[in-house]
Every structure is written in structure tokens, then in C-alpha cells.
């Protein structure tokens, strides 16, 4: 499907930009994968730093991101290969395009400012738009289908599980009572009414429900679990994996994966003799991860919950 990049004025500021480049340390002749191209900021940095002949394979589930980056990265010519694909298919896509062994892989999870600011994609409850929330409009259920058809219990469970919202039952009850709900702002209003205005609250009452719907509609946690082992299998010895997550559910998956793959034994605690035969494939680079400094958060508030974890392939 050929997509036109939209004309609304927005940009995406890459988060922890310098930290990512320091960790990946792109060199001439290197091969890199950016599995979450977004606005192409990190990808451009990798291509600039690996001049004159470093190559980059970029993926994004959102065809608009591919259209945008095709323009932004055009000057790099054949050094950049951009593919519309979910990163669940990372190894398959990498092999088809000659990236079977790479020096670095970047995952910058979640959504870009382009997506958040585009009312047509329905990610933001601050602007009226269709209840969609799919990263890839060519596949999967829309948020509207979920909100308007799921049983109340199932809806409450998903808001609790993926949004960690303690008002999940009350919100689900109210959603079911107001069906059909057509737009982002309508859903936000239903949620606000259900939980009441919380004066001085840092988060809008709909924030967690929208996060939960987005994670559910795009099956984001399962995709993350599927891609992590694939990134390791692509890395050459010495190659580096860098992952930026934006909420605790993602970060927990990344942290546990890196811990496990940096360990020589994953037997349950107090097992007298190792039975698992597991061998470490990675060395973690910053055990607690890196977070943006005050200056970055002040300049780009969307970076505030970011955490960058990374590891080197043994
Ligand atoms: C935070 S943005 C990346 C921003 C980018 N690093 C930059 O500098 O502009 C995340 C991007 O990852 C994409 N994405 C999220 N999950 C994905 C998945 N499972 N497969 C492919 N792309 C995905 C989103 O569509 C979005 O464009």
C-alpha cells in the first residue's frame, strides 16, 4: 500500500539520542537495524555516524512512518533499506535484505509524536478522531471494535492488566453503559465521568485506558517478547542491542530478558547443581539502564518515562 506522509505540522524528537549513538557506536562499514523507525531520527544518526558505507535496515509497522523516512533518508541512497513490517518478523525480514549478521539493533518502543499528534490514527484522547489505535492500519482489530464489543469483565481486565488502572472495573462499567462509543474524545469523556475529575492529578483519567487499549490492539507485549531473542540471533559477537521502553510493563520484559541472557545458569534459586545448561549470550552494559537528564525532559516532556537498556553479544 502506498501511503502519503501527512501534512500536519509535527516532528518526533529522538529520545536519548546521544546515549543511543554512544552505545551502538556506529562505524564505517557497519550494519545496523532500527526496528522502530518512527520519524527516522535515530536512523539518520546511525547512518551519519557510519558514513561513508555503513548500512541500515529500518522497519516500522506503520506505513506512514516508512513513507516519512523514505523522504528523510533519501540522501543515503542504497545505504538505507526501509521495510513496512512488524518487528515480530525481524529475522525473516533481515535475512531477505542481507542483514543476517549485524553490529547493532535498536528498538525504541511505543509510538512517535507523529502518531500521537495525528487525530486520524486515534492515539490521542486530546483531539477528536476515530477510535483506531492500530500502528498498522492494514491489520488487526481497531480500538472501536474492542471498546464496543468486549464483555465488561474482559474490558476491565485489560484496562487493569495493560493500563494498571485501579479504576478499571468502574471504567469498564461506564464504557458498556455508553456504547456505542465512536471517537477518542467521547471515550475520554466517558472515562472522566466514571472516575470523576481528580484535581491536581498529573495524568488525565483516560491516559491509562488509552495505553491499555493500544497495547491490546497491537499485541505489543507479545511482539516485544517475540523480537528480543531474534535481535540476539542477528548480532555478531561484539554487536550491541539497545532498547528504549516507556512504561513498566515493557521495561520489565526487557530487563528480565537481558538478565536471563546474561546468566550462565537460570535454574531456580537454591538448585544445588545446575541442570539448565543455559549459557550467557549477552553482557549487560548499564545494569540499571539510562534515563533522560533534566534538560532532556524539560525540552521533550515525552521522554520523561524512557529507560534505555543495552547489552553486548558475547
Ligand atoms: C518511539 S517511535 C520511534 C522513534 C524513532 N526512534 C525516531 O528517532 O524517530 C516508535 C515507532 O515504532 C513503531 N513500532 C512500534 N511497535 C512496532 C512493532 N511491533 N513493529 C514495528 N514497528 C513498531 C511505531 O509505529 C513507531 O513508529
Would you summarize the structure shown here?
The chain is α/β, with parallel strands linked by helices and 314 residues long. It has helices at 17-24, 41-49, 63-72, 90-96, 113-117, 143-149, 152-163, 168-177, 184-195, 207-217, 220-234, 248-261, 294-299, and strands at 31-34, 55-60, 80-84, 102-108, 235-245, 282-284, 307-313. Helices cover 40% and strands 14% of the residues.
Describe the fold and architecture.
By secondary structure, the protein is an alpha/beta fold. The protein is 40% helix and 14% strand. Helix 1 (17-24) packs across helix 2. The chain is globular and about 55 Å long. The structure holds S-adenosylmethionine (SAM). S-adenosylmethionine (SAM) is lined by residues 12, 14, 36, 38-42, 59-62, 65, 86-87, 108, 110-112, 135, 223.
Q: What is the tally of helical segments?
A: 13
Tell me how many strands there are. 7
Percent helix: 40-55%
Bound molecules: S-adenosylmethionine
Widest β-sheet, arrangement of strands: 3-2-1-4-5-7-6
Order of helices and strands: HEHEHEHEHHHHHHHEHEHE
Largest sheet: 7 strands, mixed
Which class of secondary structure composition applies to the elements? alpha/beta
- Strand portion, in percent? 5-15%
Q: Which term fits the overall shape? A: globular
Taking pLDDT < 50 over at least 5 consecutive residues as the criterion, the unreliable ranges are 1-9
Mean pLDDT: 94
Keywords for this entry:
single chain, 314 residues, 14% strand, binds S-adenosylmethionine
Amino acid at each position: 500500500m502506498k501511503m502519503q506522509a501527512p501534512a500536519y505540522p509535527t516532528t518526533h524528537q529522538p529520545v536519548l539520542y546521544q546515549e543511543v549513538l554512544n552505545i551502538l557506536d556506529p562505524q564505517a562499514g557497519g550494519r545496523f537495524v532500527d526496528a522502530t523507525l518512527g520519524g527516522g531520527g535515530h536512523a539518520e544518526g546511525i547512518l551519519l555516524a557510519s558514513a561513508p558505507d555503513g548500512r541500515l535496515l529500518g522497519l516500522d509497522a506503520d506505513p506512514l512512518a516508512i513513507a516519512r523516512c523514505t523522504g528523510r533518508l533519501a540522501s543515503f541512497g542504497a545505504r538505507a533499506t526501509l521495510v513496512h513490517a512488524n518487528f515480530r518478523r525481524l529475522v525473516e525480514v533481515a535475512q531477505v535484505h542481507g542483514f543476517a549478521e549485524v553490529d547493532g539493533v535498536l528498538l525504541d518502543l511505543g509510538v512517535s509524536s507523529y502518531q500521537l499528534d495525528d487525530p486520524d490514527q486515534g492515539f490521542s484522547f486530546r483531539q477528536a478522531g476515530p477510535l483506531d489505535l492500530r500502528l498498522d492500519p492494514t491489520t488487526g482489530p481497531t480500538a472501536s471494535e474492542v471498546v464496543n464489543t468486549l464483555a465488561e469483565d474482559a474490558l476491565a481486565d485489560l484496562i487493569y492488566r495493560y493500563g494498571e488502572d485501579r479504576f478499571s472495573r468502574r471504567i469498564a462499567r461506564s464504557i458498556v453503559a455508553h456504547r456505542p462509543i465512536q471517537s477518542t474524545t467521547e471515550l475520554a469523556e466517558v472515562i472522566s465521568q466514571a472516575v470523576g475529575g481528580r484535581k491536581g492529578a498529573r495524568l488525565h483519567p483516560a491516559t491509562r485506558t488509552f495505553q491499555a487499549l493500544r497495547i491490546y490492539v497491537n499485541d505489543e507485549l507479545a511482539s516485544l517478547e517475540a523480537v528480543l531473542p531474534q535481535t540476539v540471533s542477528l548480532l555478531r559477537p561484539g554487536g550491541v542491542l539497545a532498547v528504549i521502553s516507556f512504561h513498566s510493563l515493557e521495561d520489565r520484559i526487557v530487563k528480565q530478558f537481558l538478565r536471563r541472557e546474561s546468566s550462565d545458569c537460570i535454574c531456580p534459586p537454591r538448585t544445588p547443581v545446575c541442570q539448565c545448561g543455559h549459557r550467557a549470550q549477552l553482557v549487560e552494559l548499564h545494569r540499571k539502564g539510562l534515563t533522560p537528564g533534566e534538560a532532556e525532559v524539560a525540552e521533550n516532556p515525552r521522554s520523561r518515562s524512557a529507560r534505555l537498556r543495552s547489552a553486548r553479544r558475547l
